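Whiteboard transcription, Tuesday session. T.W. wrote the structure tokens on the left side:
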């Protein structure tokens, strides 16, 4: 049986817990209307809510290009630059693909013989996996990590108990995308333990998300927020161009909404490319300070 709660519920509560327990400065989650227009299914960490409210409003206007004059675009570019200089230093990025698992409790389940006890499993989409691998190859591993995240509980009761106790992060399993190359399934029994990838059985070490965040924060090199956003946009664009999503991206980025002269505005063009990446792939991007 699949987990009784939705993937979105799990994602949102994990973001809240990360905010409350692990010294993340602030959390802004876009509303459904903004997600529909911008494709942002994403958690953005920032100390400045005013910035993110303005960011989404401005980017929405840009995508509706008919109402924006060239001088308006230039003004927004400069305004965004000032805001990026004002907010805290963006030190690292987490790319997270959330997964809603199956809970298997019968001895005739495919991987039962490897666990000999109830376990969790999720499927690995080949197109999605290809993209995650490309992304992992493109990013700077000192300041970014590409992972899957999945809960080690499956009932609504367990979900809300973990929400109340703030133990969702502890009771989840994390796996680097690169470790699942060539596999179709990933299985595990609880958070923070070894998982097994299939078709050919392979033990895969899970990650401690708290340690990952701490390590990325310590070892990252800060080159300025404008540079961070620009580099991030280049990483995701290169990854998506090397994946099976490239045709969708190419059609959108070359559409009439993105005239050639728009590309000279480094910050806004970077934000638009990030928006398209998330819209097409469903990936979640976290900015850590």
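and on the right, the sequence the group agreed on:
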């Amino acid at each position: 049986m699949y987990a009784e709660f939705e993937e979105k519920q799990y994602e949102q509560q994990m973001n809240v817990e990360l905010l409350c327990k692990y010294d993340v400065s602030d959390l802004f989650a876009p509303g459904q209307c903004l997600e529909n227009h911008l494709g942002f299914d994403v958690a953005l960490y920032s100390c400045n809510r005013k910035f993110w409210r303005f960011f989404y409003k401005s980017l929405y206007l840009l995508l509706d290009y008919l109402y924006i004059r060239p001088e308006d675009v230039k003004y927004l570019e400069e305004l965004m630059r000032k805001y990026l200089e004002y907010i805290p230093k963006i030190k690292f990025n987490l790319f997270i693909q959330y997964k809603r698992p199956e809970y298997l409790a019968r001895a005739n389940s495919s991987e039962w013989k490897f666990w000999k006890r109830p376990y969790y499993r999720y499927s690995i989409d080949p197109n999605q996996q290809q993209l995650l691998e490309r992304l992992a190859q493109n990013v700077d591993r000192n300041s970014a990590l590409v992972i899957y995240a999945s809960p080690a509980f499956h009932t609504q009761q367990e979900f809300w108990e973990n929400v109340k106790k703030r133990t969702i992060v502890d009771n989840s399993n994390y796996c680097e995308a690169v470790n699942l190359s060539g596999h179709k399934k990933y299985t595990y029994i609880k958070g923070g333990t070894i998982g097994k990838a299939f078709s050919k059985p392979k033990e895969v070490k899970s990650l401690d998300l708290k340690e990952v965040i701490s390590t990325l924060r310590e070892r990252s090199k800060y080159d300025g927020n404008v540079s961070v956003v620009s580099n991030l946009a280049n990483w995701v664009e290169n990854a998506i161009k090397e994946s099976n999503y490239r045709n969708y991206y190419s059609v959108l980025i070359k559409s009439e909404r993105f005239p050639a002269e728009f590309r000279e505005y480094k910050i806004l063009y970077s934000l638009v490319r990030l928006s398209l990446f998330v819209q097409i792939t469903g990936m979640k991007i976290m900015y850590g300070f």
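Someone added at the bottom: Strands lie at 92-98, 102-104, 119-123, 144-151, 172-176, 185-188, 195-198, 202-204, 284-288.
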